[in-house]
């Protein structure tokens, strides 16, 4: 589909695959990422895009998918397929954990039946075969070992071993105490030599105890003797151990035979886990690049809205820079776009963005562009980017370009996307320009689509005079002398050669001499392009300003209509309430007047008494009216709900929770509370002051850090935990220890069979801040405790 073979690498598609592979949890998932290639079938591309989009929605808005254990069980299933072989304890344990993960995934989607239809298709008609899990759990325990009672024979053997060991220990303790009482023993307790429990006896007393000498001390003063009466008991234990091993092999062989009929289903489970890991990695990468699913079209066309180069986006994010979005359209009317403009103005990035996003969509990957973008399907993508000179093939730079042009002109058709960077360069411009124009004319006649970047004026003129070929330029601020990285179609761009040379500081005499050497007509064309660029930028800025004012006017109009609607809806209620309050005021006033008149009569119109009663009447009337006035808050005209936008802070009604708006829909709003996501109705949230929300968040965070520093101890106990839980707990403590500057971290994992210790140490070796590891002193725990020393 692509030509030449390195076109995918030149466009950056191989880097995209590497980043996606880093998100996988399993090797099988990484293998699927390695096989990603652009497709040409519409239904296949559409399915892949929808799966990635659904998984991205799941990651952002739903409960986490249970993907704790993704072990490669296909090799184990293939091993079990061979009659006479058997899986080990560890291998059965991996199968068990993987099956539990598969069943959890299937149950997860069954509980959400219909919510993720394209993801559900991954395991359609795949049953949950619980008999396999039951059979394995009957034999294998939670630590991955054969259960002591996996069979009656094994239980008897284990019982015999325990009794023999107990008897041997009892007998050797008796001998040891007798030797101590007689003063035959050296300093120290019972010790193990060659796997046998021995007594440390002084060299001069070693003939006083019958038994076998297994070792001597370095000085020769102590002999380690296994008493004769214990020797036979230990041999019995060893024989029983051999019997136990044979019985375990028999049990595992029988269990493998029981598993063998389910091998095809196990392989299907393996494929499901691989696909889930694969799609999950694509969705995680889409989240990193803010990817969306565009509208997919069967036509050989593309319309990208606010598109950004994903690799540039990730790189700029680390430096807190922003990527200028690209808006471009290639269809049956404007088939080929000729992009011109200044050096370092973004022409090549523009072309690579179009090519890379086209390949990503046809490979089923979400792209960093608006969902309104419309992407078609091309059968072929041809790219001529960079210098492909070859000493071995005796190809110069220009010869390499011509070889590609030959292939392009012979094989291009109406469903081919052609990307050519710096078209025609590498030879004398007097000849390179016409050859490039002839090739462009051929591609145009064949109906090919594409993007061409150039500095040649004849190609700009060809695009201006040819239907289906469109000029475009990268905007340049000729006052500040800097590129704007904005693509604008409809006119060619100037190279700004003299302006850039002048800014760099090239001598004025040199520039003057150079201007005299170019033709008068070329000078006029270049000057005209510069003037057009300036006028175009002024119009562009004016359009942006007008658009902002139109938005502001529309918002004010909407606010006014909302207020008018509120007043109309509540007009009758307000008038009715006002009339009732007026009646109440009149009734209360009449009572006050009657009481005042009665008081005047009783005082027989005494002057002072009458004056006091009138003052009392005035105050009473004022209070009566004041009590029925609306409070300040209600006297204000009701305000319409403030429009909530992406990025605003809101409070969820009925709770103290504050969150930030990350997206909006017709009736819902999606909120972010730290790493959590929630969906709320519009009427269930109220906008709050952003500064207040941030202040509270900082205060809470500062208090949490202070508490962590005060209470943190560089010691973690993971005994009894599963491996994944233990590593997760260790990672948290390790991060805090590094952050707070502790020199070491003490990890208590116990001895047991040493499996947990092995996994922990393998994990710590991958942790860059861990310089070395060592066991605790033998008297204080020995191999049951690991000290990790931090850089």
From TrEMBL:
Q: What is this protein called?
A: Endonuclease MutS2
According to its UniProt record, which protein family does this protein belong to?
Belongs to the DNA mismatch repair MutS family. MutS2 subfamily.
Provide the organism lineage as a comma list. Bacteria, Pseudomonadati, Bacteroidota, Sphingobacteriia, Sphingobacteriales
A GO MF annotation of the entry reads: endonuclease activity
Query: Which gene codes for it?
Result: mutS2
What organism does the record attribute this protein to? Parapedobacter pyrenivorans
Q: Which Pfam families match?
A: MutS_V (PF00488), Smr (PF01713)
Q: Which residues form the Smr domain?
A: 716-791
Q: How does it assemble?
A: Homodimer. Binds to stalled ribosomes, contacting rRNA.
From the record, give the transmembrane residue ranges: none
């Amino acid at each position: 589909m692509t030509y030449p073979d390195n076109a995918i690498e030149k466009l950056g598609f191989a880097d995209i695959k590497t980043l996606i592979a880093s998100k996988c949890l399993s090797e099988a998932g990484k293998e699927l990422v390695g096989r990603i290639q652009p497709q040409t079938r519409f239904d296949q591309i559409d399915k892949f895009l929808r799966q990635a989009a659904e998984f991205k929605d799941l990651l952002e808005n739903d409960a986490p998918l249970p993907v704790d254990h993704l072990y490669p069980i296909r090799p184990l299933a293939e091993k079990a397929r061979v009659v006479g072989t058997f899986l080990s304890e560890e291998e059965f344990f991996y199968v068990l954990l993987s099956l539990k993960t598969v069943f959890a995934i299937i149950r997860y989607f069954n509980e959400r039946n219909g919510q993720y239809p394209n993801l559900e298709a991954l395991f359609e008609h795949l049953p949950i075969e619980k008999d396999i899990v039951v059979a394995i759990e009957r034999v294998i325990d939670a630590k991955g070992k054969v259960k002591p009672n996996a069979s009656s024979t094994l239980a008897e053997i284990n019982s015999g071993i325990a009794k023999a060991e107990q008897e041997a220990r009892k007998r050797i303790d008796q001998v040891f105490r007798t030797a101590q009482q007689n003063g035959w023993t050296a300093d120290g307790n019972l010790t193990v030599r060659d796997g046998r429990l021995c007594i440390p006896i002084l060299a001069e007393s070693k003939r006083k105890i019958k038994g076998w000498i297994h070792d001597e001390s370095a000085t020769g003063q102590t002999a380690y003797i296994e008493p004769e009466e214990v020797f036979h008991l230990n041999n019995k234990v060893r024989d029983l151990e051999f019997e136990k091993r044979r019985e375990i092999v028999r049990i595992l062989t029988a269990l493998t035979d029981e598993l063998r009929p389910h091998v095809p289903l196990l392989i299907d489970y393996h494929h499901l886990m691989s696909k889930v890991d694969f799609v999950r990695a694509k969705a995680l990468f889409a989240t990193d690049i803010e990817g969306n699913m565009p509208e997919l079209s069967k036509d050989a066309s593309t319309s990208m809205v606010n598109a950004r180069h994903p690799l540039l986006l990730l790189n700029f994010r680390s430096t807190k820079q922003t990527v200028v979005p690209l808006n471009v359209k290639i269809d049956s009317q404007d088939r080929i776009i000729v992009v011109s403009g200044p050096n370092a103005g973004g022409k090549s990035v523009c072309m690579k963005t179009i090519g890379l996003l086209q390949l990503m969509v046809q490979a089923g990957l979400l792209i960093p562009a608006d969902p309104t973008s419309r992407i078609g399907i091309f059968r072929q993508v041809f790219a001529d980017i960079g210098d492909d000179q070859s000493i071995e093939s005796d190809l110069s730079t220009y010869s390499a370009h011509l070889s590609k042009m030959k292939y392009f002109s012979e094989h291009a058709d109406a469903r081919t996307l052609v990307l050519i960077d710096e078209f025609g360069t590498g030879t004398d411009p007097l000849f390179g320009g016409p050859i490039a124009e002839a090739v462009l004319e051929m591609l145009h006649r064949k109906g090919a689509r594409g993007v061409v970047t150039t500095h040649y004026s004849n190609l700009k003129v060809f695009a201006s005079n040819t239907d289906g070929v469109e000029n475009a330029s990268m905007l340049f601020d000729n006052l500040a002398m800097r590129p704007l990285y904005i693509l604008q179609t409809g006119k060619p761009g100037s190279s700004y050669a003299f302006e850039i040379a002048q800014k760099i500081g090239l001598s004025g005499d040199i520039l003057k001499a150079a201007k005299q050497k170019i033709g008068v007509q070329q000078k006029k064309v270049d000057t005209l392009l510069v003037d057009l660029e300036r006028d175009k930028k002024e119009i562009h800025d004016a359009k942006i300003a007008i658009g902002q004012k139109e938005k502001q006017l529309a918002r004010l109009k909407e606010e006014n209509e909302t207020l008018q609607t509120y007043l109309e809806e509540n007009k009758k209620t307000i008038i009715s309430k006002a009339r009732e309050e007026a009646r109440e005021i009149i009734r209360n006033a009449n009572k006050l007047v009657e009481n005042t008149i009665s008081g005047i009569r009783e005082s027989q119109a005494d002057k002072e008494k009458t004056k006091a009663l009138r003052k009392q009447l005035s105050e009473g009337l004022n209070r009566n009216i004041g009590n029925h006035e609306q409070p300040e808050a209600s006297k204000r005209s009701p305000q319409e709900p403030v429009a909530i936008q992406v990025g605003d802070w809101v409070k969820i009604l009925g709770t103290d929770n504050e969150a930030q708006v990350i997206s909006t829909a017709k009736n819902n709003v999606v909120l972010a509370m730290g790493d959590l996501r929630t969906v709320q109705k519009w009427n269930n949230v109220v906008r709050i002051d952003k500064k207040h929300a941030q202040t509270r968040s900082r205060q809470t965070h500062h208090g949490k850090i202070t508490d962590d520093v005060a209470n943190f101890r560089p010691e973690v106990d993971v005994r009894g935990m599963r491996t994944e839980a233990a590593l997760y707990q260790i990672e948290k403590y390790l991060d805090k220890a590094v952050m707070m500057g502790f020199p070491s971290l003490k990890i208590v994992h116990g001895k047991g069979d040493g499996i947990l210790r092995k996994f922990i140490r393998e994990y710590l070796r991958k942790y860059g801040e861990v310089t070395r590891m060592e066991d605790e002193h033998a008297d204080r725990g020995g191999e049951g405790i690991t000290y990790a020393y931090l850089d």
